[in-house]
Amino acid sequence: MTDSADEVLPQPTAFELVGGETRLRELVDRFYDLMDLEAEFAGIRAMHPPTLDGSRDKLFWFLCGWLGGPDFYVSRFGHPRLRARHLPFAIASSERDQWLRCMAWAMEDIGLPEPLRVRLMESFFQTADWMRNRNG
Fold it and tell me: What is the CATH T-level fold of the domain 16-131, as seen in this structure?
């Protein structure tokens, strides 16, 4: 018999904390809506195709797995190879910062709690910073 104080309960994943597929889709859609609407994101918007449907799906599928949910992206495309897939695009600090600002705004707009937004932004920053392939 084990003492219940010794039991370790599983911690919820970031995917679960965000609210699962429905809320994550809402976040991704808001992110791309902002990218389309706000002039301050013109630099990163220009890197995308005229229609954002495919980009929305790919980011949603990727974030599901990255946040600890279903691995939709990997099951469709294999390993994300994020840096390699983004090398054709000139990504410097300005593009990194636009992406991060757009995501922060989207997270706030859909009402994610501040502690979760801070936690996610730390992880997003590490990944976005690693994606830079140009000086500046």
Answer: Globin-like (1.10.490)
